[in-house]
């Protein structure tokens, strides 16, 4: 009798526990199926990257060169000056100038290096720029036996004193040349060089 009662109690407890489990599952399903509005998380603030400002001419450092003032000076080819119809002559300063040589004078490094040196060291006079003076100065000069530049003279060009003085100055300050040679000896020679000043 007691054994039967215990058995019935166990069966009843089992049924109760199963019922509660099913109800909890149904409750959980109901919670899932209910249309509960989800809380929307606010979007993170948009951080716009600062746009780089376009470069202007003021942002760019002016190029350090002989043309920084907006002017140019073009150098032509040096030319031997044959003043007399002879192999040589004596000028007013008593220098013997040779027209005919075995080896002509040359700038150390060649004409390209000479052009670079002049372009780097020449200056367009401010007064000439202000008055819009342009033109080609032809400068004659003597290359003596030691390769020095002697007696630069303006042969032709614009009648602007500042421009003429600048052309003479840059020629007179050129580094030494390799002197011309005649019969194995260095000799004096006369050359001319055109320098064109042009505004941009």
TrEMBL record:
Which cellular component terms (GO) are annotated to the entry?
plasma membrane protein complex
| Keywords (A to Z) from UniProt | Cell inner membrane, Cell membrane, Membrane, Protein transport, Signal, Transmembrane, Transmembrane helix, Transport
> Region Disordered: start and end of each range?
19-82
Composition-biased stretches (Acidic residues): 23-37
The residue range of the signal peptide is: 1-23
Give GO BP annotations, semicolon-separated.
protein transport; transmembrane transport
Q: Name one GO molecular function term.
A: energy transducer activity
| Predominant location category | membrane
Query: Where's it found, cell-wise?
Result: Cell inner membrane
| Ranges for domain TonB C-terminal | 109-200
Q: Note the topology in the membrane.
A: Single-pass membrane protein
Q: Which family does it belong to?
A: Belongs to the TonB family.
Q: This chain belongs to which protein, by name?
A: TonB C-terminal domain-containing protein
Per the UniProt record, the source organism is Mangrovivirga cuniculi
């Amino acid at each position: 009798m007691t054994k039967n009662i215990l058995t019935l109690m166990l069966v009843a407890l089992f049924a109760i526990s199963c019922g509660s489990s099913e109800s909890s599952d149904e409750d959980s399903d109901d919670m899932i199926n209910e249309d509960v509005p989800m809380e929307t998380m606010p979007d993170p603030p948009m951080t716009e990257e600062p746009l780089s400002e376009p470069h202007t001419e003021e942002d760019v450092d002016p190029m350090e060169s002989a043309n920084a003032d907006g002017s140019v000076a073009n150098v032509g080819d040096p030319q031997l000056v044959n003043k007399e119809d002879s192999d040589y002559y004596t000028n007013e300063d008593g220098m013997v100038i040779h027209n005919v040589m075995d080896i002509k004078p040359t700038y150390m490094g060649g004409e390209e290096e000479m052009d670079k040196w002049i372009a780097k060291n020449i200056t367009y006079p401010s007064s000439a720029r202000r008055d819009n003076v342009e033109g080609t100065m032809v400068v004659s000069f003597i290359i003596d036996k030691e390769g020095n530049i002697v007696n630069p003279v303006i042969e032709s060009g614009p009648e602007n004193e500042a421009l003429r003085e600048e052309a003479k100055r840059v020629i007179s300050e050129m580094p030494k040349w390799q002197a011309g040679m005649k019969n194995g000896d260095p000799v004096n020679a006369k050359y001319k060089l055109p320098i064109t000043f042009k505004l941009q």
